[in-house]
Predict the structure.
Amino acid sequence: MKTEKSRFIQIAILAALGAAAALSLALPQLLRVERRAQLLSVSVMLRDTDSSGWTVARQGMEQAADELGAELRFLTLASANDSAEQETQLLREIEDGAAALVAVPADPAALSAALDPWLVVCPAVTLESAMEGAAGVVSPDNALLGKELAAALLEDWDGGEVLLLDTAGRSSGVLERMEAAAEVLTGAGVPFRRAASLPEEGDLRWVMAFEPAATQRSAEKNEAFSRSFAVYGVGTAAAITAQLERGSIAAMAAWSDYAAGYLAVRRAVGAVRGTDGTLAPLPFSVLRKEDIYAPENQKLLFPIMSSSSR
């Protein structure tokens, strides 16, 4: 009788141990499934044809998503600044269950009109340009940036016409930068003209670009054709920083792309969850070649290197 009872107890113990072992194997998978079910889907839409210029901003977005339990889906356009395609893609994302949007609007007014019925259930945060109805915008003070970039040019200007590159289409944030720069040049009596691209020939001495892609292209042409014009632009991408260091860019307005990406996703997730949040304009600096390796600019220009050295 005792033997039978002992055997029963042993069987019960083994069964309990087996169940515990099975549960320990299944529990992590169950938790992962539950976590995936709780992830907020955030769609990120640029106005460019590729995301290479947004690498650091994307890292900031991914960091915020990891911390806040969000899942990111990155989208690009077939044609740069194609507002109609951007609207179509974002509406499709909403239909497919996106909880929030982060966008660099090609045409803020048109995008706002297209998304307006949906922004209550799928909030949007914009980068670069403000948009009516959005839950916030992550951008430097665009007008102030344009003025300070023009002031940097005036420090060097000794005569001649300034070319303002008008490359942003209907991006209101970039247009604000250009108009503010034009206002400063007008007040200083400096002649200027607007153009969508650099002329192939001619006596060109001064160029202002107001978005990273245009800044990089201008510096590349300066180097490739041994042109001698001075470029005043914006951006913190590695290629642009290298161009500044080589002297192909005279001065650039720079802000933290990593912070921009991080703050955009954080605000988007907060808007879904009803968390209050405000977005202040991003701080920026106008840098020259000699400023690149100043300690205060290391995290701005080399965020990956700075974080890995900690």
Summary: Residues 85 and 152 are 37 Å apart (CA to CA). The mean pLDDT is 87. Residues 2-38 form the longest helix (37 residues). DSSP finds eleven helices and eleven strands in the chain.
